[in-house]
Design a protein that fits this description.
alpha+beta; Alpha-Beta Plaits; four-stranded antiparallel sheet; globular
């Protein structure tokens, strides 16, 4: 079953975050993932949720998503992201 990583990101240091953004796509692709949303414009339709940046990644399975997230390639990039942005991430299985 397809799985999605959904992130709400508040970039605090754009130069450092740009380095993270440059390195991430190759790690995502290696584990069969792809970007669905990568920081495009958003608009609240209900409620007061107003994230500064939304990211959605699609992976073939939850197992593939977790392998990517815990991989040797991505682990150092987590620290880079966390040093340059605050955020929340969830993993969700699709329909």
């Amino acid at each position: 079953m397809t799985a999605y990583l959904i992130g709400e990101i508040d970039v605090t240091n754009s130069a450092g975050y740009d380095e993270y953004r440059r390195q991430v796509p190759a790690t995502v692709a290696k584990y069969g993932g792809r970007f669905i949303v990568r920081g495009g414009a958003s608009e609240a339709l209900e409620g007061d949720w107003a994230p500064k940046r939304v990211v959605v990644l699609e992976f073939p399975t939850m197992e593939a998503l977790k392998r990517w997230y815990h991989s040797a390639e991505y682990t150092p990039l987590i620290a880079l992201r966390q040093a340059n942005a605050a955020g929340k991430l969830i993993a969700v299985e699709g329909a």
